[in-house]
From TrEMBL:
Keywords: Coiled coil
Taxonomic lineage of the native organism: Bacteria, Bacillati, Bacillota, Bacilli, Bacillales
Name the record gives this protein: Chemotaxis protein
Keyword Coiled coil: yes
Organism encoding this protein: Brevibacillus brevis (Bacillus brevis)
Residue ranges of coiled coil: 37-64
Length: 134
């Protein structure tokens, strides 16, 4: 593999590992069903912390200069990751601590948007890996 491609792939993989770790923590929170105001508050606080981590990871991903061969795919990856982050923001917004409720429709919609963005991330990274390995 071309050394420039290899260095790029390593940089993206490093951020990908951090994203996976954050996503695993996110999954732990999402597996809980809020039943009390304390549950909703804890869930919201956890999501807000993870949202900060994801935004930091997006900034790192965005700062990487992609080789020309995957420049468009890299831009797509950053945009799709932005969609993923927006889905998490929807989940956070669905947890209304002031009115002691969770908007389950908004929450489920956020989860679906997150699933779709995850699938797109997998697809675009496969295309990038194929291009870089040639």
């Amino acid at each position: 593999m071309n050394p420039i491609y290899f260095a790029y792939a390593q940089a993206v993989a490093k951020i990908g590992g951090a994203i996976r770790e954050t996503a695993n923590k996110y999954g732990e929170i999402s597996s809980c069903k809020p039943e009390t105001i304390d549950d909703i508050r804890a869930m919201k606080e956890g999501y807000q912390q993870l949202l900060k981590e994801f935004k930091s990871q997006k900034a790192e991903l965005n700062s990487i200069t992609a080789p020309g061969i995957v420049e468009n795919e890299h831009a797509q990856l950053v945009n799709i990751f932005s969609e993923y982050i927006q889905a998490i923001q929807s989940l956070i917004n669905s947890l209304d601590i002031d009115n002691v409720k969770a908007d389950t429709t908004m929450f489920e919609g956020g989860l679906e948007k997150q699933r779709l963005a995850s699938a797109k991330i997998v697809a675009i990274t496969k295309v990038m890996a194929e291009k870089l390995s040639k």
